[in-house]
Write a structure and sequence with these properties.
By secondary structure, this protein is mostly beta strands. It is about 10% helix and about 45% strand. The protein has a domain of about 120 residues. The chain is built from three helices and 18 strands.
Length: about 270
């Protein structure tokens, strides 16, 4: 079973755009689909048919009553609803976010303006909100203290290079993969893994160097060069980066890279002995 949210615009008889949003429930094996809700459906058959149309922001599971859908307003304010009951979900006020990354443990929320990271929040599967990182350079005040100190480089705008950040959570710890490149068409100049461990105030920075065994490289050499380049120097998005108890996974164009948790621990232990 797959949930597929959508946004659409219909024209009224007066040729006025009428915004709408909805959700399909798809059953691939049966080749069938069911319309769960649509703000254009009348008469109303589901509680979410009557909500104000907003952009579907994210979908994730919860431990309290089924799957959750998040919406984002034009002001980047987010709201969350239980898909089965149509009721509002979560024990927190309205939040602002520009990007969401659902994980197995909850959903990570980003606030970013003009490539400067404002903050990172987190909603767990029970619907509790936690502020993970906050840009102390901003004048905006937060009621809650962040769990970790935000790295200085995340608070600065990249003027002469492009920067991408991917997030994931595992065991309550936060992982951020950062990559930089000096041209959007070029391979990243560097990859860095930031590991935020519970009980530690700051992240451990782990430089990542991706290499390939000669036998594997020979296989890829039969493909166009740009495929090799994108595999050896991936530009992952949030869905391409996953933290697990066993380690972290970075998806590339023609495969994936895996960094075992033991290697991360060994690197951190070596740093502590310097």
């Amino acid at each position: 079973m797959i949930f597929a949210p959508f946004s659409h615009t219909l024209k009224t008889p007066d040729d006025i755009p009428d915004q709408g949003t909805g959700l399909y429930q798809i059953y691939p094996e049966a080749g069938a689909a069911n319309l769960v809700f649509s703000t254009h459906r009348r008469p109303v058959q589901h509680p979410l048919d009557s909500i104000e149309p907003q952009r579907p922001f994210c979908l994730f599971s919860s431990t309290e009553g089924g799957p959750i859908i998040g919406f984002q307003s034009t002001k980047a304010e987010t709201s969350y609803y239980n898909i089965e009951t149509g009721e509002k979900w979560g024990k927190f006020p309205s939040l602002r976010a520009t990007k969401a990354n659902p994980t197995a443990e909850g959903v990570i929320l980003w606030q970013e303006e003009e490539k400067i990271l404002s903050g990172v929040g987190y909603i767990n599967l029970e619907g509790r909100y936690e502020l993970l990182l906050w840009n102390s350079n901003l004048k905006k005040e937060q009621k809650n203290e962040p769990v970790w100190k935000m790295p200085q480089e995340f608070t600065e705008k990249p003027y002469h290079y492009d920067r991408g950040l991917c997030t994931s959570m595992s065991g309550g710890d936060l992982y951020i993969l950062s990559f930089t490149s000096y041209n959007s068409l070029q391979a990243p100049a560097g990859l860095t893994l930031y590991y935020f461990k519970r009980g530690q105030a700051e992240a451990v920075r782990i430089p990542i160097k991706i290499e390939m065994p000669d036998e594997d490289r020979k296989i890829l050499e039969a493909t166009p060069y740009y495929l090799i380049n994108r595999t050896l120097s991936p530009k992952p998005q949030d869905g391409d980066f996953l933290a697990t108890p066993k380690g972290v996974v970075i998806l590339a164009n023609d495969g994936f890279w895996f960094i075992p948790s033991e290697d991360i621990s060994s690197y951190i232990n070596a740093l502590s002995k310097r």
